[in-house]
């Protein structure tokens, strides 16, 4: 509309000037002819002083809640920007899903506005935001100045699980199943979990049936159990199981269970770690509080699961999407 009015005024001024040939008609025609030059200078100065930033850096959201990346548009020039178009691109990992968005905005002279780019939070992972280009138009719509930013990264949003009390009983069950006693047998600490056979005794209520020694039980006609011992108390290591044909929902359940079970197992005081891939390398990350829980969740949410093999020095627990997928090994 502005461009149409400008063209009408320019034609009118060009027609009236030969008829009147006075200072006013000349000034109007000259002003209309010079106006595009002024617009071009204005848009050049504005583009130079225009910045698109995201100071929030990496942000965190929980699954299913509303989440987005904050983007600040800063106009440091003395001219207002009536039409600004940003072309941004999002990439969601580990699924490799790309999406493109267009943001239209106007920014006053020497001012700043904030725009929130909403992202998908239906599954655990990370969405990275990139700025592909920004385009500025003058008020009249005569010029369009496009600046390519070559996919500059603006920020990331990590979708991670919450700490959920639902997993506390199961975690405590694992700890109790391999808990260490206060008894001492020579240089070995007696344990109800994996270890070396250091003695035999009669079966007591609460003993694990896996420790029954069948040959001795048959000889003495009563249940005899093995007394297990270990040299030291080892921390737990929970390793997510990479299940065959795993879909996003299954992957989410495994991440939830691994991190939450590790978190509540760590409350036992024995220590608990989660196996994650950091830079493609399996890494044992201790989970002892909410901060370490979130850090491990950010790593686990964006990568594949490590190969589930026992790691020396830990009581290793492989966690799948269901309880039946859990097993303990040393």
The gyration radius over C-alpha positions equals: 33 Å
What is the number of E strands? 17
Computed structural class: alpha+beta
Low-confidence residue ranges: 181-186
Rounded to the nearest angstrom, the distance between the terminal CA atoms is 75 Å
- Strand order of the biggest β-sheet: 2-8-7-4-5
Rounded average pLDDT: 83
Instruction: Report the sheet-strand fraction.
Output: 35-45%
Largest β-sheet summary: 5 strands, mixed
What percent of residues adopt helix (DSSP H or I)? Answer: 25-40%
Shape: rod-shaped
- So how many helices? 6
Q: What is the N-to-C order of secondary-structure elements (H for helix, E for strand)?
A: HHEEEEEEEEHEEEHEEHEEHEE
Verbal overview:
This protein has 330 residues and is of the alpha+beta class. The chain has helices spanning 2-20, 23-49, 168-177, 214-220, 248-266, 290-302, and strands at residues 50-53, 58-62, 68-75, 81-93, 97-107, 111-118, 125-137, 144-160, 180-185, 188-191, 196-202, 224-230, 236-240, 272-278, 281-286, 315-319, 327-329. The strands form 4 sheets. It has a 5-stranded mixed beta sheet with strand order 2-8-7-4-5. It has a 5-stranded mixed beta sheet with strand order 15-14-13-16-17, covered by helices on one side. Strands 9-10-12-11 form a 4-stranded antiparallel beta sheet. Helix 1 runs antiparallel to helix 2, helix 3 crosses helix 5 and helix 5 packs antiparallel against helix 6. The model is unreliable at 181-186 (pLDDT under 50).
């Amino acid at each position: 509309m502005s461009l149409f009015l400008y063209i009408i005024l320019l034609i009118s001024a060009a027609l009236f000037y030969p008829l009147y040939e006075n200072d006013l008609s000349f000034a109007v025609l000259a002003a209309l002819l010079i106006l595009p030059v002024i617009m071009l200078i204005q848009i050049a100065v504005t583009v130079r002083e225009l910045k698109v930033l995201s100071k929030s850096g990496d942000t965190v959201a929980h699954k299913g809640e509303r989440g987005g990346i904050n983007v600040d548009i800063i106009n440091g020039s003395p001219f207002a920007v009536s039409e600004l178009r940003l072309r941004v691109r999002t990439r969601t990992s580990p699924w490799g899903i790309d999406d493109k968005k267009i943001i239209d905005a106007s920014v006053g002279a020497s001012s700043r506005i904030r725009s929130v780019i909403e992202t998908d939070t239906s599954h655990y992972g990370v969405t990275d935001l990139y700025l592909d280009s920004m385009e500025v138009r003058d008020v009249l719509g005569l010029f369009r100045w496009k600046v390519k930013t070559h996919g500059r990264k603006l920020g990331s949003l990590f979708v991670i699980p919450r700490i959920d009390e639902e997993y506390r009983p199961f975690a405590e069950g694992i700890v109790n199943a391999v808990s260490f006693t206060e008894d001492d047998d020579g240089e070995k600490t007696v344990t109800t979990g994996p270890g070396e056979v250091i003695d035999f005794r009669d079966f007591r209520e609460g003993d694990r049936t896996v420790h029954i020694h069948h040959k001795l039980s048959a000889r003495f006609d009563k249940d005899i159990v093995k007394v297990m011992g270990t040299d030291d108390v080892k921390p737990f290591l929970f390793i997510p199981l990479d299940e065959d044909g795993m879909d996003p929902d299954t992957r989410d359940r495994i991440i939830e269970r691994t991190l939450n079970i590790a978190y509540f197992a760590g409350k036992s005081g024995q220590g608990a770690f989660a196996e994650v891939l950091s830079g493609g390398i399996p890494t044992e990350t201790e989970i002892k509080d909410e901060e370490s829980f979130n850090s491990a969740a950010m790593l686990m949410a964006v990568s594949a699961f490590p190969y589930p093999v026992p790691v020396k020095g830990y009581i290793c627990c492989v966690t799948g999407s269901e309880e039946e997928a859990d097993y303990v090994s040393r």
